[in-house]
Every structure is written in structure tokens, then in C-alpha cells.
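Sharing a chain and its predicted structure for anyone who wants a worked example. Both blocks are below, sequence first, C-alpha cells second.
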Amino acid sequence: MTDHTLATHSPPADATPLPDMRESLRTWGWIALLSFGGPAGQIAVMHRILVEEKRWIDERRFLHALNYCMLLPGPEAQQLAVYIGWLLNRTAGGLMAGTLFVLPGFLSILVLSFIYALWGSGGWVAGLFFGLKAAVLAIVLQATIRVGRRALRTPAMLAVAGAAFAAIHLFDVPFPAIVAAAALAGFVAGRQGWVSGTVAGGHGGGRGSNHGRAAGERPAALGTDIPAHARPSRAWSLRIAGIFLVLWLTPVLMLLATLGPDDVFTRIAVFFSQAAVVTFGGAYAVLGYVAQEAVQAHGWLMPGEMLDGLAMAETTPGPLIQVVQFVGFMGALRDPGALHPLVAGTLAAVLTTWVTFVPCFLWVLAGAPWAEALRGHRAVSGALAMVTAAVVGVILNLAIWFALHTVFGAVDRIGYGPLSVDVPVWSSVDPAALALSAGAVPAVLWLRVGMIPLLAACAAAGVVLQVLRSGLG
């Protein structure tokens, strides 16, 4: 892949120099190792290092990139890394930044998946994940409240969130259909001027300007000038889209042709390719969709194991959506065919990661030069606002689903005509899980305990409880 020639412009004499690939490699590797805390924490780390410390990009340009990434399906923090890496070092820089952002989490979760598969059914490992479930529940509840406060700015948005919750919780409406309906309603409403919405942030300043810096700070390396490789080009977008479509879909089509549609690897490739297109709203929003399909439709893992996988993703660096790697691992582990179960699980983890993240490079590298065309578009803003509102309802459903499967050992799905609802079996309540959850939730919501201390405390408590249970047994 080749880029257009870089634009020639004259930055201020005291501007920070643009980094070369070696310096970018070191910096993106360090960012990847620090990328704990979900999207908010990861974006904060990038902002601190790239905007405040390195001065490679200014505040407004950073928000410009973030705004575009929030329009896309997939993990916005990883896509932001691709976008900024591409701006700084062209296509190679975007590929490097996006890959490094995923790599530590992939390796960490793969190791944890092996440990879980070999020793996760008992002992200290079981206690560790038992404790982490309570922390994950508190974190998801906190995410629901935070996203809701930011997104539900009008009664119409509140109504959309409520409708989305009812659709997925009571009627089992698929997540993609909810996103599509919300986007269509918001597009029409925005076009008619009935609703408006924006993604946080903005950008401004003319060519050669360098806003978003405090007095005495050096101008950022990028400023707001547009490099030639970042200018819209239909030929470039079609070429890069074609390359990444081939990279993304070739393994899927090969599996369909050689193993057939019912093989576990084919089903994993097809399902997570579909998920990559509809994961608007970040990891928490799509997890409800993934859990619904992976647990109930495909039977790749049990509800409690979905929580264990999320606990892995919460405690390792990288995008939270990396939990899908664990889902694929467990699905193939249980249906390995002629392969050794651990070999099948490893191959499925690689396959899941590939079809989840290759599309992210496609969306950014092909679409980022055209991002400015979306700015200030009233209908698009309305669609985004309603999709964000719908995502809040989906995350609330996820929080309730996690709560039920954390505290209760058995949950029944009871139907009433078109309605169906999860009802806990009250006799299956786990007192230890209830006690841990009752401590973790107020610690996060009211005492504002940080994520790392919360995870550490809950994990330690889980191990202690497991040891006590083993001793009493």
C-alpha cells in the first residue's frame, strides 16, 4: 500500500517535530501497555501522552479524530490509535498503532484462557474469577450511569433508551435491528429539525493554526494542517477498502467453502464478522448482543463463563471488546473436531481477533479522509444521537443480565406470548456473591474506588472465600 505524497507545509519554528517510526513504535508500545480501564481510561492515556506530554497532536485535532471514531462500529479507543498513527506516520503508522494497541491484551487473554481451560473449574483460579464477577458487575453498572448521563439529554432520547431496553430485554430483538431502527428514526428526525445531537468535542481553526494549547506550550507537531495523505481521494478509499475487505473476508469464505456453514470455526468467523459491523456504542453495548448469541443461540459458553471472560478483559490491557477472543476460544475448545482442544481454542482466538479488528482498520483508513464531510450534518447528528440513546438501554439490559447471573446460580427464561423475561430461581441465590456485589457496587458508585483497587480487592476476596469453602468442604 502506498500513500499520496505528504503535503509540504511550514510549521512554526518552535513546533514539536513529527516523530519517526522508531519513536512512534516506542510510544505506541508504551500506550498499549498502559491501556487499562476501558475506552475512557484508554482515551485518557492517549490524550495525556500524545497531547500533553509529546505534543504530537493538539487538543482540537485529537477531538476531531475521536469524534470520527465514535461514529464507527468497533472499539473507538483502538480506532483512535489507528487514526492518529495514520496522521503521524501515514498508513504504516496506523497499522502499527492499531496492532500494538491490541497485541498485549490478545496475548494476556490467551494465557488466561489456557489457565482457565486447564485449572478454572476449581482451586484459586475459580476463586479469582468468582471475586472478579462482583467487580465486573459494579463496573458495568457504573458504565450504564455514566453513558446515560452523557447521552440522555432530552425526553426523546430517554424514550428511545427505554424502547431499546424493552426491545432487547422483553422481546429478544437483535441488537443490530435496534441500532438500525434508532439510526433511521434519528436521521429522519434530524433532517426535519425535530432533534439534534452531537458527539462530544469539536475542532476548529484554520490552516496553520494551532489551538488547544496553554500559554507557553510548544505548538503541536500536526497542528491543524491537512497532510496530503489525509486528503479525500476516491481512488485511495476504494483501494484501501478493497485490500482490507480481502484480508477480512478471505478467511471467512475459505472456511465456508472447505468446512461448511455448520463447523464451529465457520460459525465463529461469520458471527464475529457480523458483530464487527454492528458494534456501535462500544464494548459494553455489544456485549449484550454477543452474550445473547454466544450463550443462548450457539451454546459456546455458559452465562457465568461470559462474566469470567469479561473479567479477563477488564484486568488486561487493550480494548474491552477483546473478550470476544475468549468466547471464540471456549467455543472451539468444546467442539474441536479432529484438533486438540487447546489447539482449536488458540486458532479460534486468532480467528475471532482477526475478524473483529481487521474491519477497524478498514473503517478508519478508508473513511477518515472523508470525516469532515459529516461535520455539521444535521441528519447524521440526529442519527448518532438516537443510536447513542439506544445504546444506553442495551447496556442497562447487559447490567441486569450480569447481575442475575452473578448473584443467582439458576435463571429461568419465562415467556408470555411475544414477551419473555429472565426470572431468577430465588433458592439458588449465592450469599457470598451477593455479599461481594453488595460491597463492590457502592464502592464504585458512591465511594469512587478506582477500577484497579476494586478488581484487586474483589479478586483477593474471591480467593479467600474459595479457600474457606474448600476447607469447610
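Comments welcome. Residues 76-119 form the longest helix (44 residues).
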